[in-house]
């Protein structure tokens, strides 16, 4: 049985939060899909609220606290990412964006991602595709075609009864599981101290040799 | 081991009085600080370079030349000189000039600079930062070592038969440190040339500095400049002291909380636990500084940032008194303990002049030996020619190769 790691990032602020609920459901569904393909998934879930001050401090000082560094290492070294934000003022929350601002612009390359969002009404659902998706595309992550949006009503009787929330979660989880099963990302070593090109080549190239 | 101070030349409001010094006050204060550094027995004063307010130090060699005239033993350095946006020709000229007026009490630390607009202001592209640092230093290195330089590169106009003047004092270029916080290419560059590497780890956790220094040491050995433990390492540090630890914390906290670089972020307590910043008694500073050796090995230069964030001149001079009288003498003694004899001191002009003389002597000796061997090989080859021509030739070739390598 092969093993893959899935990082879950939830930017929900309240306790309990519907953002975290959606993130957990996406994670559970992805684990099931992977198990069906004989892949064991190890899930690590992070609430950005727990490192909110550390994120701000990183923005100001340029380096992470040990606690935030552990979260960043887990997210950037995973085989797959489930990223869920509440929609505030027509976009992802500032905390969600600030976290990905300090993660580093080249650390999520090729990372399979499924995006999710929550809000009070379904009228914000496009924020997934005009805010979250372009951000991960910019970071060269591989974003699954299906994003899952859960309005408050989706948790009760005013839910979409044709394409239900469980249906949407199932579809997104299937897409993520396929990407994660094929990914060997966590086994490739990314050493921040490694040179991209041999130094002699760097100098030689510049000297026109 | 050398101990000293470095300044970034910030003009910052004193948060306890609300008063911001004028440029002239701050410049004169820095000159007083540099002179006092020598008076209290420190070895090095290093000055930053910036091209935008609230910093004043745009012309470090002018400032350092004045300080040179006012001091007699202080080693003058920079922290850092911008190798990316300055013309390497002008760096070669300015620092050779400074060497002459300062009688050799000069080295410099090269850095890329992290103020985005400085690059376009000087016609450069920040995305080429590493490449600029590599190409510009390659030229600077030659300008100080070759009388006439033909050169062509990507970033500056070509040179044909160019001679940079004045020539370095005694034909020995100033020692160069390469400073970087997070770029392995710069550690590699320092190792490649056998230059020093300075990790300003004041805003960066020890674990990161440890890996950068380890990389530099390993590559220094790889390029055959000596063993890893002989690589030339410098570290930054940042301290605020009072005899009583609580007094230091109380007095420094408003400066920390409002400092331009880390103010309004982590608490003083978080920052001191995560970085080399020490706020406390001289003994606490001694203990923390001695701990640096545990993760970088025996090193050559320790510089402290003492005069930033709006601290008034009087306070800074008192800090230097504590540093010079109570901290550095103990650090000198303790760092000397268990230090292998093979670990060199930081290079100075005198040591570089001596090394050049000994290199020239051993080159002469090697070349004499080579000629002698050639002569002896020829004799023995002639003697043995009849018996075994094949036996003499490989022997001669092997000696020849060894002599060339030794040179």
UniProtKB/TrEMBL annotation, chain A:
Q: Does the keyword Flavoprotein apply?
A: yes
Asked if the Swiss-Prot or TrEMBL record annotates the protein with the keyword Flavoprotein, the reply is yes
Q: What is this protein called?
A: NADPH-dependent FMN reductase
Q: What is the lineage of its organism?
A: Bacteria, Bacillati, Actinomycetota, Actinomycetes, Micrococcales
Q: Which UniProt keywords apply?
A: Flavoprotein, FMN, Oxidoreductase
Q: Where is the NADPH-dependent FMN reductase-like domain?
A: 6-155
Recorded hits in PANTHER family, A to Z, give: FMN REDUCTASE (NADPH) (PTHR43408)
Single GO MF descriptor: oxidoreductase activity
Gene3D superfamilies xrefs: 3.40.50.360
Q: Give me the segments passing through the membrane.
A: none
User: Per UniProt, what is one Pfam family of this protein?
Assistant: FMN_red
Annotated coiled-coil positions are none
TrEMBL record, chain B:
Pfam families linked to this entry: Bac_luciferase
Enumerate the InterPro entries for this protein. Bact_Lucif_Oxidored (IPR050766), LLM_FMN-dep_put (IPR023934), Luciferase-like_dom (IPR011251), Luciferase-like_sf (IPR036661)
Drop me one GO molecular function for this one: oxidoreductase activity, acting on paired donors, with incorporation or reduction of molecular oxygen
User: Could you confirm whether the keyword Oxidoreductase appears in this record?
Assistant: yes
Report the GO terms under cellular component: cytosol
Signal peptide as annotated in the record? none
Question: Where in this protein does the record put region Disordered?
Answer: 339-386
Q: Where is the Luciferase-like domain?
A: 1-294
Keyword terms, alphabetized? Monooxygenase, Oxidoreductase
Cite the record's Low complexity compositional bias ranges: 353-386
Q: Which domain of life is it from?
A: Bacteria
Q: Which NCBIfam families match?
A: LLM_CE1758_fam
Q: What is this protein called?
A: LLM class flavin-dependent oxidoreductase
């Amino acid at each position: 049985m092969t093993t893959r790691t899935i990082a879950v990032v939830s930017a929900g602020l309240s306790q309990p939060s519907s953002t975290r609920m959606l993130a957990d459901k996406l994670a559970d569904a992805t684990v099931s899909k992977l198990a069906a393909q004989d892949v064991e998934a190890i899930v690590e879930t992070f609430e950005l609220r727990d490192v909110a001050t550390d994120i701000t401090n990183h923005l100001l000082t340029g380096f992470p606290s040990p606690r935030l560094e552990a979260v960043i290492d887990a997210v950037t070294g995973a085989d797959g990412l489930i990223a869920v934000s509440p929609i505030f003022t027509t976009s992802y929350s500032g905390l969600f964006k600030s976290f990905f601002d300090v993660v580093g612009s080249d650390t999520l390359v090729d990372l399979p991602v499924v995006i999710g969002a929550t809000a009070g009404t379904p009228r914000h659902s496009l924020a997934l595709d005009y805010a979250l998706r372009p951000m991960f595309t910019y970071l060269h992550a591989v974003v699954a075609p299906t994003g899952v949006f859960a309005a408050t009503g989706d948790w009760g009787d005013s839910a979409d009864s044709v394409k239900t929330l469980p249906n949407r979660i199932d579809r997104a989880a299937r897409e993520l599981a396929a990407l994660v099963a094929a990914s060997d990302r966590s086994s490739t070593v990314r050493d921040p101290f490694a040179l991209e090109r041999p130094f002699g080549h760097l100098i030689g190239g510049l000297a026109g040799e | 081991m050398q101990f000293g101070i470095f300044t970034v030349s910030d003009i910052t409001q004193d948060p306890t009085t609300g008063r911001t010094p004028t440029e002239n006050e701050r410049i004169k204060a820095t000159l007083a600080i540099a002179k006092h550094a020598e008076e209290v027995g420190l070895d090095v004063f290093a000055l930053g370079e910036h091209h935008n307010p609230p910093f004043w130090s745009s012309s470090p060699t002018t400032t350092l030349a004045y300080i040179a005239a006012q001091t007699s033993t202080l080693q003058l350095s920079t922290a850092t000189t911008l190798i990316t946006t300055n013309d390497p020709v002008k760096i070669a000229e300015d620092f050779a000039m400074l060497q002459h007026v300062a009688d050799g009490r000069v080295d410099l630390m090269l850095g890329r600079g992290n103020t985005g607009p400085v690059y376009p202001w000087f016609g450069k592209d920040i995305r080429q930062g590493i490449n600029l640092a590599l190409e510009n230093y390659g030229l600077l290195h030659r300008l100080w070592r070759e009388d006439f330089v033909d050169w062509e590169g990507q970033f500056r106009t070509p040179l044909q038969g160019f001679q940079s003047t004045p020539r370095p004092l005694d034909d020995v270029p100033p020692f160069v440190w390469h400073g970087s916080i997070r770029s392995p290419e710069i550690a590699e560059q320092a190792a490649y040339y056998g230059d020093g590497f300075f990790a300003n780890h004041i805003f960066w956790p020890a674990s990161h500095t440890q890996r950068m220094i380890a990389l530099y040491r390993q590559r220094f050995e790889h390029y055959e400049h000596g063993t890893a433990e002989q690589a030339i390492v410098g570290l930054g540090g940042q301290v605020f002291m009072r005899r009583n630890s609580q007094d230091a914390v109380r007095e420094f906290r408003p400066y920390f909380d409002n400092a331009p670089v880390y103010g309004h972020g982590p608490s003083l307590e978080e920052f001191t636990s995560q970085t080399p910043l020490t706020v406390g008694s001289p003994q606490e500073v001694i203990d923390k500084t001695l701990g640096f050796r545990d993760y970088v090995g025996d090193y050559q230069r320790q510089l402290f940032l003492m005069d930033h964030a709006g601290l008034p001149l009087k306070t800074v001079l008192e800090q230097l008194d504590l540093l010079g009288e109570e901290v550095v003498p103990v650090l000198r003694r303790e760092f000397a303990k268990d230090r292998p004899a093979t670990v060199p001191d930081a290079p100075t002009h005198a040591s570089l002049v001596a090394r050049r003389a000994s290199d020239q002597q051993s080159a002469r000796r090697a070349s004499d030996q080579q000629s002698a061997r050639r002569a002896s090989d020829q004799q023995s080859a002639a003697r043995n020619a009849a018996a075994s021509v094949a036996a003499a030739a490989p022997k001669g070739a092997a000696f020849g190769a060894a002599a060339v390598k030794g040179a």
